[in-house]
Amino acid sequence: MPQPKKDTPLRADAQRNRERILRVATEELTRCADAPLSAIARKAGVGQATFYRNFPHREALVLEVYRYEMQQVADAASRLLATREPEQALREWMDRLARFALTKVGLADAIRLVTSAPGGPEKPGPTPVLDAAGLLLRANEEAGTIRPGVSPDDFFLAIGGLWQVDPHDDWQPRVTRLLDLVMDGLRAGAPGR
Length: 193
Description:
Structural class: mainly alpha
Strand content: under 5%
Order of helices and strands: HHHHHHHHH
Oligomer: single chain
């Protein structure tokens, strides 16, 4: 059966199946990087044909789970800005990003497995998350709560220590301290302070 074109919307039931597969795959791949696809389909409550119609091979599933998770983190930025002051939205978003980075270790391993194979696909870039960081940084700069001129690239270099924290230890206190230090650095030189 031909795949729907990218801009052709899926039927509601097909969309629900796809989202359920992605949710289950996220859980299973986070737990075990090489989780069997048949187990993911079974736990998602879909047949093999439905599963493979959506994700014809492991690489397609893993890359879509990664994109889906990155989009969830990115989408949180605008939701936070709609309900919180820019500074609080930025700090809470940083916590969400840290939780994603440190609780999805199995998913990171699954990405490495599929993208490191000879002839395998490239790892998708972090564009939605960079854009989300840019949105939060601009809102804070306009509010005068952070120093002017901080780019998303600067921001990600500053929080790069997140990826050095051992996710198997009690990482939350350490990450909270690190992100508090980053926020202090962003606030230094802010015109509204």
